[in-house]
Amino acid sequence: MNYRHIAAVSAIALATSLGACANAGINEAQEFAVDTAPQQTEIQKTDTAALNKLIPDYIDAAALYKRAADIPDKDRELKPILIKLAQERQADRERMQNLVVAMGGEPAELGEAVGTGHRTFTELRTLVADDSEVAVEEVLRGERYLEEQISSVLAGDVSDATAGMLEDMREDTRTKITLLEKIDDAV
Asked: CA 143 to CA 60: how far, in whole Å?
């Protein structure tokens, strides 16, 4: 057994055994707003549930993209793009959490175990191939997943206001996918 194989097995075992998820807690002002909010309407409950379905994906996306930006490589132009995308996904997550709070709900604060597995897979791939192509492909896969998740939520029952916001987010995601596909073709 070589070093890379041992490291890969260890990385998978650690993530699996810990079941670690990315965390993006809410601040004290948000906690106060949740604690003092009036009872939610049925529409607000539906919108809150829909947004809370997406928030963990955005928590994971921001964490994954920050990790992807750190993949060692010679391509210095890629890192700022991935960092900016991570910041944008974090801002989207915060916007959704704030909306949930404004509707009197309690926002999701943790990523999904699937996101942890995706980050572990990225780390495993970097043991074998430390290059920009790995980073771009993983982030591209993440953006495609976000687009699917947003479409899934939009196929359900959400208010017009929430649907409008999610449609804007989906369009932004599609724009990012196009950009990442161009970058992927160039690396």
From this structure: 11
Q: Which segments of the chain does DSSP mark as H helices, in order?
A: 3-18, 28-36, 42-69, 78-102, 113-128, 132-154, 160-186
Residue 7 CB contacts under 8 Å (≥ 6 apart), including other chains:
127
Contacts (Cβ under 8 Å, ≥6 apart) of 24: 55, 59, 62, 90, 93, 94, 97, 109, 110, 111
pTM of the prediction? 0.73
Joined tokens for residue 95 = 């916007």
Find all residues with CB under 8 Å of 131, minimum gap 6, and list them: 71, 73, 75, 187
CB 185 within 8 A of CB 177: no
Confidence at residue 128, expressed as pLDDT on a 0 to 100 scale: 45
Strand pairing partners for 110? 23
CB atoms within 10 A of CB 26: 19
CA distance 53 to 47: 10
The answer to whether 15 and 117 have CB atoms below 8 angstroms apart is yes
What sign for the dihedral angle of Cα 168, 154, 51, 103?
A: positive
19-35 confidence digits (pLDDT tens) = 334 545 666 766 665 56
